[in-house]
Specification:
The protein is an alpha+beta fold. Helix 1 packs parallel to helix 6, helix 1 runs parallel beside helix 14 and helix 10 crosses helix 13.
Amino acid sequence: MNDCDVLIIGGGPAGLMAAAAAGRQGARVLLLEKGDRLGRKLIISGGGRCNVTNRKPVPDLIAHIPGNGRFLYSALSTFGSEEIISFFAGLGVKLKEEDRGRMFPATDRAATVAQTLIAHLRDLGVGIRTGARVERLTLGEGRCCGAALAGGGAVHAGAVVVAVGGTSVPKTGSTGDGYAWAQQAGHTVTPLYPTEVPLTAADPWILDRSVQGLSLSAVTQTLYDPAGKKVTTQEGDMIFTHFGLSGPVSLRTSHYVSVTHLRRGPQQLRLAIDLFPGQSSDDLYHRCLTLAEAEPKKAIRNVWKALLPERLLPVLLGLAELDGQLTAAHLPREGLLRLSRLLKALPVTVTGTLPLADAFVTGGGVSVKEVDPKTMASRLVPGLYFAGEVLDVHAHTGGYNITVAFATGYTAGQAAAAAVVRAGRARLSSTPGVQR
């Protein structure tokens, strides 16, 4: 099928959903994927379990989309988390809710979601071609009317949805192809940067690997700009690596590190880890003192193992200038005060993030100022639509990014199909001898 109503370019979450939405409108749909199979990023999402969505109301969803979340208000209001849950339930995919509203397939297998969605496309009669690499969009007579394929050949379409992702996780086929096509059509592509990516640090106690692999639960990370002004505070679990910080809270913080570097230039940033968000520095001072006094003959490095991670304790004692061999009777109050403050604000010198190729999500992309939020249609070129990570929209991990992909894909696919149907009716009504 080289002629279709709606051409979808990209077989990831956004492209699959766009094809389903267009197919449900009765449109003739063709889905092109340059790789050898569909849904590769979907299959590896959520650690192979596929965090299908996050069961939060629209305002809360938008709060977890730091990259132009407000642009998605209309799309999420039409096809948000509850609609996504209903969509998959209608296909026989039962979802279960876990912590923080995250929704997973009951099978705990991402393949369940991908295979079911692909089977649905086949049921709808959607044409699917893998190994089909698009070279450029076909633009003519003031609109987008298809795509030219690498190696020759072309597809003619009434509308085209570009859903090829960004440049993160390139092994899934996301290599930034869509940005050049968008620019070909006259669109602005905002600077790209890594987000939802581990942080790099310069602190010797991190780089010497003494805490590598140590995980901390329910901490907060507060990032400060070069002038000392707070940029953000994020809460969640984290893990120390041999180069810096990772885990959900660090991945969320990475957006703000990248954006600060874009605005202020690459420079070291201060980050403070609160190990005990629910307690004050004064509370922790007295808690440490009470533990030491309860076992007055024991060295504090042994006493405080009941309170602090054993591998982190030497670091904290060193930063507080406390001798771990001290007992309660010889414990300097100034040193204990320094320790209690460190427990509320353990300083980390953040130098940046891992590169974009190592990121889970791409920041930046096709400017949302040039896209209609109600349809995902280009404001510059009729017949052209965008969906998913190719847009300058991104969210935190936890089911939010895939929600964005599904919401924008559904919106673009449905709108593209409806536009082609309207155009067909208009042509029929204007043809001599054809009654309305």
